[in-house]
């Protein structure tokens, strides 16, 4: 890899995630100030959608942090950050519905969600071990260690890639549920979609960066074996 290509590569690795994070934060901050037409808080939205889908074993709780919203499948809990839990904004409604989308996926045993859950242990191990194994292999000139490190990294990358359909599907479910439950009107559809699309960018950026890193080390491994 030439110096110019090398600099472009690392610029993409640095800039893409920062751009995605900036996009989601700016979009979120814009629509967290705009009330939704139903006047429902994020917690109200989450509970209504859960009830309308016949899901009664999932709790909705408040959690600390900025955009720390998530669904915990082990404890069957939708956790919403304080603003989204209490406020009646379009952003709060969108994010609450998205997290409930994951709860609906869980209830319906959505295949990609199950696959992602199964990948968690090996993906976590891969994230923690791959760079150490690859670095040790490069320093020692041991291509076997590099190869093992690449295999570990591949599982972590696979986890990132499988996350994409899970997140996009949850967002699609969120839009359908927000409309069918009467939380938003058709005129609010484009703005709600902007919030969900911006959030999805962070997952796309993470997957692209992870895939680029994997390709780089695979090429390095092939070069070592020439």
Automatic annotation (TrEMBL):
PANTHER family attached to this UniProt entry: MEMBRANE PROTEASE YUGP-RELATED
Coiled coil (residue ranges): none
Transmembrane segments: 6-24, 131-159, 200-222
Protein name, as recorded: Zn-dependent protease
Keyword Transmembrane helix: yes
Highest rank taxon of the organism: Bacteria
UniProt-listed Pfam families: Zn_peptidase_2
Key words of the record: Membrane, Transmembrane, Transmembrane helix
């Amino acid at each position: 890899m030439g110096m110019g290509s090398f600099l472009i590569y690392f610029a993409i690795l640095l800039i893409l995630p920062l751009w995605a994070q900036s996009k989601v934060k700016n979009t979120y901050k814009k629509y967290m100030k705009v009330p939704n037409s139903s006047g429902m808080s994020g917690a109200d939205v989450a509970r209504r959608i859960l009830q309308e889908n016949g899901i009664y074993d999932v709790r909705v709780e408040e959690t600390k942090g900025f955009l720390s919203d998530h669904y915990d499948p082990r404890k069957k809990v939708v956790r919403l950050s304080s603003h989204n839990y209490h406020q009646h904004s379009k952003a709060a409604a969108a994010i609450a519905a998205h997290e409930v989308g994951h709860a609906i996926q869980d209830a319906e045993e959505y295949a990609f969600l199950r696959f992602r859950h199964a990948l968690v242990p090996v993906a976590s191990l891969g994230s923690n071990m791959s760079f150490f194994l690859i670095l040790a292999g490069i320093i020692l000139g041991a291509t076997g260690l590099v190869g093992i490190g690449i295999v570990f990294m591949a599982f972590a990358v696979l986890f990132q890639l499988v996350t994409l359909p899970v997140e996009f599907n949850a967002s699609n479910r969120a839009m359908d549920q927000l409309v069918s439950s009467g939380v938003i009107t058709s005129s609010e559809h484009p703005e709600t979609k902007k919030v969900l699309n911006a959030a999805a960018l962070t997952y796309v950026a993470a997957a692209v960066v992870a895939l680029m890193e994997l390709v780089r080390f695979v090429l390095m491994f092939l070069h070592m074996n020439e």
